[in-house]
Amino acid sequence: MSDTGTDTRAGTNEAARDLTPPFRYTAELAGEIERRWQARWNELGSFHAPNPAGPLAGEVPDDKLFVLDMFPYPSGAGLHVGHPLGFIATDVYARYHRMRGHNVLHTMGFDSFGLPAEQYAVQTGTHPRTTTEANIERYLAQIRRLGLGHDERRRVATTDTEFYHWTQWIFLQIYNAWYDHDLGRARHIDTLIGQFESGARAVPGGRPWAVLTAAEQHAVLEDYRLVYHSNALVNWCPGLGTVLANEEVTADGRSERGNFPVFRKHLQQWMMRITTYADRLLDDLDLLDWPDKVKTMQRNWIGRSRGANVEFATPLGRDIEVFTTRPDTLFGATYMVLAPEHDMVDALVADRWPDDVDSRWTGGARTPSAAVSAYRAAIASKSDLERQENRDKTGVFLGTYATNPVNGHEIPVFIADYVLTGYGTGAIMAVPGHDERDFEFATAFGLEIVRVVSQPGVDPNAPLEAAYAGDGVAVNSANAEGLDINGLAVEAAKSHMIAWLEQRGRGKGTVQYKLRDWLFARQRYWGEPFPIVYDEDGVAHALPESMLPVELPALSDYAPVTFDPDDASSEPSPPLAKAADWVNVELDLGDGLKKYRRDTNVMPQWAGSSWYQLRYIDPTNSDELCAKENEAYWVGPRPEIHGPRDPGGVDLYVGGVEHAVLHLLYARFWHKVLHDLGHVTSSEPYRRLFNQGYIQAFAYTDSRGVYVAADEVEEREGAFFWRNVDGDEVEVYQEYGKMGKSLKNSVTPDEIAENYGADTLRVYEMSMGPLDASRPWATKDVVGAHRFLQRAWRLVVDESSGQLRVTSEDLDERTLRILHKTIAGVDEEYASLRMNTAGAKLIELTNHLTKAFPNGAPRTAVEPLVLMMAPLAPHTAEELWSRLGHESPLAHGPFPIADENWLTEDSVEYPIQINGKVRGRVTVPADASREQVEAAALEDSKIAGFIEGRTPRKVIVVPGKMVNVVL
C-alpha cells in the first residue's frame, strides 16, 4: 500500500485520520509503543550492567564495553534536536554491542554546578539547587523520551553531596601529593617529609627540617605540593565581582556574561601543578585512539619547546632571563621586551629618559615611570588573545639597557602587550630580522634590524624589507671570543651557541612549555567547597577524610560583592564569606580544639567533570571513590586486546571538539595523579575519543541584525518574511549556523517525537550524514525516516487487520545474497560508528523485500531486518519482534550473523555501453578475466547487431562494473 499523500503527524487533519488504516504506523501509534517499551525495559532492567563487586555486582562476561557521552549541563532552556545527536549515536553503538553479547555500561549524569543557576538565584532568590534539580528533571524527561538505553542506577550529578564528597576527596589526594621527578610520578607528601627528616633530600635554605617552625615547613611543602597557593595573575571582573577563566573572557577583554571590563591583576589563588605532568600528557597522546586534530590541539596547548635560557645583564646587577627556541639568532637580538606585568619592570624603570631618547619610545610621558603606569592602565583590560592578535604594536621604553651576551651590545628594554607572563619567562630577546611581530615592533619604533639567517639568493648584508622565518645558515654571527657559527645550519648553530653560553655561564639549554598551572578557584557560591581550613596564622590545613563532605551552607544572598565595572583596584569578596557561622569554626584536627576559618572560594566547574566516569563505575560506593576491582574491569588496561602499551580508559568517549583541550587535559591530569597514587589501574581516562559534528539550521535576521524566530519565517519567491510585534510583515535575511537559542533556530526533540515518534527522530538524525560531520537540519525531510519505518512495519503487520504478513516461503538466491550482504555491511557499519550507511543498507533491504514480496515477505528475511533495526529504532523493532511471536525482548540480541557463502557472487552482470550509451547486458562468471568479459560482450546478439561487422576501435573493461565499446 502506498503511503504517498498520507499525513504522518498525529491529530493534524481529522479527515486524513479517518482515511488512515487502523493499524498503520503513525505518530500516535509510535508514541504508544515507545511509552510501553520504555516501561518494559525499566521493569526488566534491560540496560543494567553488572559490576564484578559491590552493590551492583553480578555475573560479568569478559566482553565488556564502556560507552560515555560528554557530561551535559542541565540548561533551563532544555534540549534542541542538535543536543541528542551524539547521545543517539552512542545509544545505537551500545545497543549493537549489547545485542552482540557485551556487558555494556552506558549511562548519563549531569555537570550541574555552574554560573547559570547561580545567576538565576541572584535574580530571583531561588536556591540554585532548586533550579538545578528542576532542570535535571526536564532534561531527563526529554532524553528518556528518546529511548536511550541508560543504566539509570548509575546516574550522578556533580551537585549531589555524595558526588562532591569524592570530588573533595580527590582534591585532598592531589593536595597531599608531590611529584618525584626521580621516579617520574606523584607520591604522598609524607614521603617528601620523610626525605627532609632523614636528610636524604636537602631542605631549601640549608637548615635541618626539625628546626623549622610549622609555618616554615608549610611554606617549604607549598613549593612541592601538586595543589598550592600562588599570587596568580588572574582575570578580575569588578562588574561581576569574580575572577573569570580565560574562556569566559571575550577577545576584546570583556566578560562573556554582562560585557563588563576584565582586568589582569595578581590575587592569591589555588593552583594545580599540572605543568609537572606536561611531558607525560604530551607523550602519552601517542597511546590514545583520538582524532589527530584533538591531539594536535593538545600538543599545541602544552607547547613543548626546546631551546635555551639566556641571561642578559642589566645595570641592577640582576640579569633578565629569556627563553628562546632560536639561540642561534642571538646576534640578531637588537632590543628586549618584557611583559608589562613582569616582576622586574618596576626595578628596571629609570628615573629619567636618556638625553637622546627617540620620542616614539616614550609614549608621550615625561618620565619612564609615568610611561609605564600609563601603558599598564591602557592595556589592563585586554585579554591574552587580544594582546597576541593585535597587529598594532605598542609599548614603552623603560629608560634602561641590557647587554647582549654574545656581542656586548647595549640594547634597549621595552614593555609591550604582545609579550605575556604566561609563556617562557615573560621576557623576550627581540630578533626583528626573523620574527614577524618583532619586525613590526622594530619598524614602528625605529629599532635596528639585523639579518643573522641567510635567505637564498639574497646578499646577507642587504636590508630586510620583511622578517625572514625560512631555512638558511647563520650569517653575521661571530665574535672575538671564539664564537663563530657562520655557515652552520639551524640545529648545528643552536648546539654551538648553547655550548658557548653554558661554558661562560650566560645560558643553559632547556625545555619550556606553553602550559601554565591550572587556576583552581572561583569567587562564587554554586560550586564545590574546598576541604581546607586556615588557622589563626593563615596556615592552610587539609581536613581529614572523616570530615567530608564539606557541604555548601544555605544562603539567602548568592551574589558576590560587585564593584564599579572600571574599578581595577577592587578586591574579590566571595558569596560564601557572608556565611559567618559556616566560615568560622572550631575543629579538632588532632591537636585539640582550635579556631579555624574555612576557604570561601569554590572549585571551578571543571572539577566534577574531571573524574565523573569513575563514579559511573561505582555510583553507590560510600566507602571509596571506586572499587579498584570494578575500575580494573571497566577501564583497566587490556594489553591482550589493545597492545602492550594500552593505558586503559573508557572504550568510547563521544562529544564535541570544543572540549578538545581544557576538559580533556584536566581529566587526564587528575586521572594520572590517581594512577600514580595507586587508586586506579588505568593511566588515561579515555582510550578512544570520537568528536561528533553539529546539527546546523537556517537562521534569520531583520534589518537591524536581530535574530527572529526561524519557525515564524515564511519563504516566498526566494525571499523571506516575518511579522513583527505590530503585525507588520518585514523582510528578513537568511543565514546558516549552529542550532541554538541565540540564533532562534531551535527545533525541540519533543515536537518531532510528538509529530513523528522518537524512533523517526533517531533514524533521521543518524541518516543525515557521517557522525563526525556537521549536517543541516530540515524538518520537512524527517518524513522520509518515518516512511522507512512505515514500510518496515508493513512487512510484518497488515495495516487493515493488524495480522502478521510474514510467510514461511523460502528465500530466492538473489534475496539471500542481498540479505547476507546487508547483515555483513550493517554489522561493520555499526561497529565503525557509520550509522548513516547502516541505515541506508537497511532501507535498501526493506525496499527490496517490499517490492519482491508484495503479498508478504518470508520470516527468514524479515526477522534479521527487525534485529538489525533494533539499535536505530529500538521501540519499533521490539514491537515487531514481539508481534513476530518472540516473548523475550531483543535488547540483548541476538544480532544476525552473515553466512559467508552468500557474500561472494558466482556471476556478475555487466552493462555494455556503445559510445557511452548502454545497449545491452551480459552475465559472466565472477572470476572471468578481462579477455573473457570482452569476448562475452562482443558475442552478445544485441551488441553484435549494433556493431554490424565493424571492428571496435577500443573495448574498455572496468572489472565488476561495465564494458564500454568505442566504435
SSE inventory with pairings:
Layout: H1 14-19, H2 27-44, E1 64-69, H3 84-99, E2 103-106, H4 115-124, H5 128-145, H6 161-175, E3 177-180, E4 185-188, H7 189-198, H8 214-222, E5 227-237, E6 242-244, E7 263-272, H9 278-283, H10 292-302, E8 305-312, E9 320-324, E10 335-338, H11 345-348, H12 368-379, H13 384-389, E11 395-403, E12 410-416, E13 427-430, H14 436-445, H15 490-503, E14 507-512, E15 518-519, E16 532-534, E17 540-542, H16 580-583, E18 584-588, E19 593-598, H17 606-609, H18 612-617, H19 628-635, H20 639-642, E20 652-655, H21 662-676, E21 689-691, E22 695-701, E23 707-708, E24 714-716, E25 719-723, E26 729-738, H22 749-756, H23 758-767, E27 775-776, H24 782-796, H25 813-831, H26 835-852, H27 859-869, H28 874-883, E28 907-914, E29 917-925, H29 930-939, H30 941-947, E30 954-958, E31 962-966
Parallel strand pairs: 1-2, 1-20, 10-12, 20-21, 22-27, 28-31
Antiparallel strand pairs: 3-4, 5-6, 5-7, 7-15, 8-9, 8-14, 10-13, 11-12, 16-17, 16-19, 18-19, 22-23, 22-26, 24-25, 25-26, 28-29, 30-31
Helix pairs in contact: 2-22, 2-28, 4-5, 22-23, 23-24, 24-26, 25-26, 25-27, 26-27, 27-28
